């Protein structure tokens, strides 16, 4: 093959770096080592990259489907734009060498995963020291509970159908730092639809909503979501690698554009969705009974 023809093929098909530039972010970071399995329905792995960093990584061939990577990417970027406590997301490159990234629950049994661009969430803490917990071992301080509460408007906006997941790390006597994790089931997972159930996105384990008596507890995040510009929302959504959405890049672009439009249109709805959730006594036992969701007013209750 001549050099001219080879160059044309590369430009048409795209190297990983070319694909990355088309998607609006830097070239994928090569994975140098695949480590242990991590908890989660998408069977993530702890990986090390060529720059020495560690990530919780999800491969597109996972039991929950490829779009959980898109969901993690979009939510990670949106959450950071809203200054929520999340780790940075990156596009990583798995070339299939080294330790096999196999998955007994995926189609094909234990067949090694194919080379692909994968989603990486920057690891928080030291994995060798085990200094992070997915449930705090004692009662949380108010700052940590506030961090968990701040996630509820966001989870309602992005239609997170999972419970709120978080990591905790000790920050001194009786204090914990918090990181919000696992947004794979935002947008209703693979379906990209909006069931909007009251108990979706709720943090169940640490009584984060105890003592809440008004929407003031969520006002800062509700306002921040409404102030996030449509242009920025669309730019974040459209930066998603197309192969995490659909095999056809044009169809992927159409689906991403619709998702961006949905998110822009949902912003004014967030307050009512939060109210619908905290009105439930199981979620917020201190909520005043006279602060009623609109749907209850319509049915005369």
C-alpha-based Rg, rounded: 21 Å
What's the total number of strands?
A: 7
- The fraction of residues assigned to DSSP E strands is 5-15%
First CA to last CA: what distance?
75 Å
Element order, helices and strands? HHEEEHEEHHEEHHHHH
User: Count of helices?
Assistant: 10
- Point out poorly predicted stretches: 4-16, 104-109
Mean pLDDT: 87
Q: Which strand order do you get reading across the main beta sheet?
A: 1-2-3-5-4
The largest sheet is: 5 strands, mixed, barrel
Q: Outline, from the CA principal axes?
A: globular
Helix content: 25-40%
Can you characterise this structure?
This protein has 301 residues and is an alpha+beta fold. The protein has one domain (20-298). It has helices spanning 3-13, 16-23, 67-81, 142-149, 151-157, 219-227, 230-238, 249-266, 270-278, 294-298; strands spanning 29-37, 45-49, 54-58, 89-94, 116-122, 165-170, 176-181. The strands form two sheets. Strands 1-2-3-5-4 form a five-stranded mixed β-barrel. A two-stranded antiparallel ribbon has the order 6-7. Strand 2 (45-49) and strand 3 (54-58) form a beta hairpin. Helix 5 packs across helix 9 and helix 7 packs antiparallel against helix 8 (249-266). Mean pLDDT is 87; it is low at 4-16 and 104-109.
Question: What distinguishing features does this structure have?
Answer:
301 residues, 5-stranded mixed beta barrel, 10 helices, 7 strands, globular
Q: Would you spell out the secondary-structure blueprint of this structure?
A:
Layout: H1 3-13, H2 16-23, E1 29-37, E2 45-49, E3 54-58, H3 67-81, E4 89-94, E5 116-122, H4 142-149, H5 151-157, E6 165-170, E7 176-181, H6 219-227, H7 230-238, H8 249-266, H9 270-278, H10 294-298
Helix pairs in contact: 5-9, 7-8
